[in-house]
């Protein structure tokens, strides 16, 4: 399974458009190679370098989606209408939806993690990352990740 973006290369810089210095809209994401028998997909976007990559103290969550349909092949740029049946979790701004990179200092890494599950999850009532990770434990059949980076003012 693979996750990619037409907006940035693996390990490359995320364009300003998708950050707090731009329009703060979600980047286009595409995936393929979802294993046969997969029942749903989960997307977690987070930054393990917060607040300072030289001395990280936490992982900041930017986007949580679950129960993405297996026939979906990605998410368009600035997506407003999620695929039917898709549910959302809370990011670390305590809201649903995408929150773009906005690092206070240094160049941060942003992990776009896609998980293929052997179940469709129940409605978890806008879980946080910990709750979603607990729910998918033991149900992951494949995973892929795409890392982009961003530093303010460049």
Describe this structure in words.
This protein is mainly beta. It has one domain: PEBP-like (Phosphatidylethanolamine-binding Protein). 5% of the residues lie in helices and 35% in strands. The chain is built from one helix and eight strands. A five-stranded antiparallel β-sheet has the order 6-4-3-7-8, covered by helices on one side. The chain has a three-stranded antiparallel β-sheet with strand order 1-2-5, with no helix packed on it. β3 and β4 form a beta hairpin. The radius of gyration is 15 Å and the shape is globular. The termini are far apart. The model has no long low-confidence stretch (mean pLDDT 97).
Could you list some keywords that capture this structure?
single chain, 154 residues, mainly beta, Phosphatidylethanolamine-binding Protein, 5-stranded antiparallel beta sheet, 3-stranded antiparallel beta sheet, 1 helix, globular
Summary of the model, kept short:
The chain is mostly beta strands. The chain is about 5% helix and about 35% strand. β3 (about 40-50) and β4 (about 60-70) form a beta hairpin.
């Amino acid at each position: 399974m693979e996750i990619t973006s037409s907006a940035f290369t693996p390990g490359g810089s995320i364009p300003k458009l998708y950050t707090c210095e731009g329009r703060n809209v979600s980047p286009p994401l595409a995936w393929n190679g979802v294993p046969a028998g997969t029942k749903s997909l989960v997307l977690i976007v987070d930054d393990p370098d917060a607040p300072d990559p030289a001395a990280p103290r936490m992982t900041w969550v930017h986007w949580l989606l679950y129960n993405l349909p297996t026939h979906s092949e990605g998410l368009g740029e600035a997506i407003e209408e999620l695929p039917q049946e898709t549910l959302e979790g809370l990011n670390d701004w305590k809201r649903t939806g995408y929150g773009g990179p906005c690092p206070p200092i240094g160049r941060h890494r942003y992990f776009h993690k896609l998980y293929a599950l052997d179940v469709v999850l129940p409605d978890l009532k806008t879980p946080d990352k910990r709750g979603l990770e607990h729910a998918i434990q033991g149900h992951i059949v494949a995973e892929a990740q795409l890392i982009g980076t961003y530093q303010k003012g460049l």
